Amino acid sequence: xxxxxxxxxxxxxxxxxxxxxxxxxxxxxxxxxxxxxxxxxxxxxxxxxxxxxxxxxxxxxxxxxxxxxxxxxxxxxxxxxxxxxxxxxxxxxxxxxxxxxxxxxxxxxxxxxxxxxxxxxxxxxxxxxxxxxxxxxxxxxxxxxxxxxxxxxxxxxxxxxxxxxxxxxxxxxxxxxxxxxxxxxxxxxxxxxxxxxxxxxxxxxxxxxxxxxxxxxxxxxxxxxxxxxxxxxxxxxxxxxxxxxxxxxxxxxxxxxxxxxxxxxxxxxxxxxxxxxxxxxxxxxxxxx
Length: 289
What we know:
This protein is an alpha+beta fold. It has a single domain, classed as Nitrilase/N-carbamoyl-D-aminoacid amidohydrolase. The chain has helices at 4-13, 32-49, 67-70, 81-93, 178-186, 200-218, 268-276, 279-282, and strands at residues 18-25, 53-55, 96-98, 102-105, 112-119, 125-130, 136-138, 144-146, 159-162, 165-169, 191-193, 221-224, 228-230, 236-238, 242-244, 250-253, 259-266. Strands 1, 2, 3, 4, 5, 6 and 17 form a 7-stranded mixed β-sheet that branches. Strand 1, helix 2 and strand 2 form a beta-alpha-beta unit. Residues 3-14 have low confidence and may be disordered.
């Protein structure tokens, strides 16, 4: 457990160059109660490894495609039991929690938002991001997916200052929109979180390539905790959580099943990489005929 003096010193100095992370790769269940149980297993792993931050995947609180079963469980951030468990864990341990994302009731409607939170070592929510890019597709085989049927899209890119520098939020399908990550990097983020629940076909084809591209383009660390396996609602997700350095090197990669992955990051590599390849500074406005 980290002492409050250690945490406060790091926050005040804002100079941390070493960051130890635990990525919790989950096969989230169809009830929040079941996922709180899974979260406690990740808490134990994070404590045992003496990490600075614990990271969860997308929709870590609820993987439930049936609206009838989901609706009674989806509540506000303040009421969500998964978020509450994360806050209590952070307060008791001093470990920061990147919540992945949670299915949360929208403030002004009965619809949902897909919300990512950063919780500090005092158990306080210091940033919140709602997924901007919603996954709406119609495939030739008749498969139809419409996140926009249930979810309201976010409208604002979000980054947050931490004891280890500025960090940026994104979620799953956001990965395919590089301008979001350029904006986060230009705002000073050197670590980009991309929690996800990628499908198996797209995960197999594109997951690694896109994650490495976002790291290389921005000179940032990419931390992507993922959902995995066959879920109770019948969906199957790819897994293979990844941590990638600013040069595009894979530092750690998960398998196809639940596990907790520990990674040590040397955050000074971001500034060095951006100095060697200052692409962010060289971007120019242009017109198109």
